[in-house]
Amino acid sequence: MPPSGPPAALPVPAARCSTARTMPAAGPARRSATPRQAALQRLDAGVYGDCVDCGQPIALERLRVQPAAERCAACQAARERLRRA
Ligand SMILES: [Zn+2]
Predict the structure, then answer these.
(1) How far is the CA of 81 from the centre of ligand 1 (A)?
(2) Does residue 40 lie in a domain region?
(3) pLDDT tens, 2-37?
(4) Would you say residue 47 lies in a domain?
(5) DSSP states along 20-85
(6) What total number of domains does the chain contain?
């Protein structure tokens, strides 16, 4: 019976598949990105949660309800008012 010692070379886990990070650029311009993609881009840029119009942080409650929101409630309301007019 062999003495108990450190186990011989442990199998090294294979490198994790990284296909998820290699996403092909969907559109020619960033403007064509979906709100969700735009939110992810802002997350990458470190500005996620900031209103794109006034730069103020968007209320957490709002982000919780609408994670892809890119404007604070005030700016969004103003924008929708303009769009309807
Ligand atoms: Zn705003």
Answers:
(1) 14
(2) yes
(3) 677 666 665 666 555 544 454 555 544 555 789 889
(4) yes
(5) GG-PPP-SSSGGGS-HHHHHHHHHHHT-TTB-TTT-PBPPHHHHHH-TT--S-HHHHHHHHHHHH-
(6) 1
